[in-house]
Design a protein that fits this description.
3-stranded mixed β-sheet, single chain
Length: about 475
């Protein structure tokens, strides 16, 4: 629940804690793991309000699998780690409190290898494992958490204000002190180097991406990449990492790193097609086709762009050309299936999606599309079996519950239909609509005691939610 305070009180609190900091007073409190976890959730909410997150199953699966793989060497994991790609062409990445790590799509587009992406992620993981943000937040712990989260967002976004309150010289001073120090950066690089080495990636990737960012800075004059603004001492960091590289002995490529490296070009293609200006992305893919007319990735990227423009025939043609050389590529098969579905050709969509499931029978994105095609064809029993299966595969998309409600409704099973609509609206944060559907479900449940218990449980959760 959000709380508000008079502006004068906030100003006094800001002044008091800045004064304590500059006068050298040591706070008599420290932020707990629970408090940092709460701050992390609020930080994530703030990011969702300010940015659009990438909505692509392959991209989100890739970044989270890579992140989970990279944290395996950590001796202590204070929080469950979460990794997100933000749809933004700026060159930035950062770790929020509580284990939330964000990478901008523009940052990934500037990379040439999975080792560079792993290098950036490991550096941010280093900040989390050393609890650098917790040590900085604790200085201002008694200021409203929402205010600190807003200032923290500004500090991690290259000096941009993250909150309307985070203005003026006092707030700017706090925001500056929330930024990482050179010592923080050195420690995060040392930890990141250690995690990269243990995971089988080449730490040279850390140097490669920093050099690229510096080159962008030199070419762009005052247009400094946000990642350099929020991570001070770029040249110094490169030098320190290169010193560590002198004693580095490359490891043999293992199965996991080999797969991440192999799939990285697919990730870049998807993000370029879905996040970059469509005309610019189309131009770049067309240039790739001039060099290699059979390039599967260029055709794949163009197919995504045509699908986004509702030019489904052109999209299907490009996806088919991409499959000529990558016949078992799951993301291409899934995009082709969806293009058929959007064109109203659900039988063709089902045929392609079944081929995709032969590649990975547990792929949730493919299963959802297959369920949707069965639903479109009014084969509700088949759709329901798929949606019920998806509910057991966490995390679950909200749309699964909505489509399940629709399918049960079409079958005349109204108690179940209202029950799943209730869950959908609860997860959407629309509590009044959720209560309405749960009450209707309870009214229609008859003698189904098992369903009534599930409904009561969901209603209790809805009421208890702050």
């Amino acid at each position: 629940m959000k709380t508000t305070k008079p502006k004068k009180l906030i100003s006094f609190a800001l002044f008091f804690f800045v004064a304590c900091f500059y006068l050298g007073a040591t706070p008599a409190f420290s932020i707990s793991l629970e408090e940092e976890s709460i701050a992390g959730k609020k930080f994530l909410e703030s990011m969702r309000r300010q940015f659009t997150f990438v909505d692509d199953d392959f991209a989100n699966d890739y970044i989270n699998k890579l992140g989970r793989y990279l944290i395996r060497p950590l001796e202590t994991k204070y929080f469950p780690f979460h990794f997100y790609i933000i749809k933004n062409n700026e060159l930035n990445a950062f770790a929020g409190p509580g284990g939330y790590i964000f990478v901008f799509s523009g940052m990934v587009d500037a990379m040439d290898s999975a080792d560079e992406l792993a290098g950036v992620l490991c550096h941010e993981i280093g900040h989390v494992s050393a609890r650098h943000l917790a040590k900085r937040i604790e200085q201002y712990k008694k200021i409203a958490l929402a205010t600190i989260v807003g200032m923290l967002a500004g500090a991690l976004l290259g000096g941009k204000p993250g909150s309307a309150i985070a203005t003026g010289s006092v707030a700017a001073g706090i925001q500056k002190q929330l930024s990482y120090s050179r010592e923080d950066e050195r420690q995060a690089d040392e930890l990141g180097f250690k995690y990269l080495d243990a995971s089988g990636f080449n730490p040279e990737g850390m140097v490669d991406i920093l050099k690229k960012l510096q080159k962008r800075e030199w070419l762009g004059g005052s247009n400094v990449p946000p990642y350099l603004l929020t991570h001070p001492g770029g040249a110094e960091r490169i030098s320190n990492i290169e010193i560590m590289m002198r004693h580095y002995v490359p490891r043999s490529e293992n199965r996991q790193t080999a797969k991440f490296r192999k799939d990285f070009p697919l990730l870049k293609t998807i993000l370029r097609a879905k996040c970059m200006d469509p005309d610019e992305a189309k131009r770049l893919f067309s240039l790739d086709l001039q060099k290699d007319p059979g390039s599967p990735l260029a055709h794949f990227g163009l197919g995504i762009i045509w699908k986004q423009r509702a030019e489904y025939g052109k999209a299907i043609d490009n996806f088919k050309k991409a499959l000529l050389t990558k016949p078992t590529c799951l993301p291409i098969l899934r995009e082709l299936g969806e293009a058929y579905q959007l064109q109203g050709e659900d039988q063709d969509a089902i045929q392609v999606l079944r081929k995709a499931l032969e590649v990975d029978a547990q792929d949730k994105g493919t299963l959802f599309l297959l369920g949707t095609s069965y639903q479109n064809l009014e084969q509700y029993d088949k759709a329901i079996r798929i949606y019920e299966r998806l509910i057991s595969m966490k995390p679950v998309k909200n749309e699964v519950y909505y489509n399940l409600g629709l399918s049960y409704g079409r079958q005349g099973k109204l108690a179940l239909a209202h029950y799943y609509f209730g869950i959908y609206f609860k997860r959407q944060g629309e509590r009044a609509k959720a209560r309405f559907h749960f009450e209707k479900a309870q009214e229609l449940a008859g003698n189904d005691q098992s369903l009534k218990m599930r409904i009561r449980s969901q209603m209790k959760k809805t009421r208890s939610r702050p």
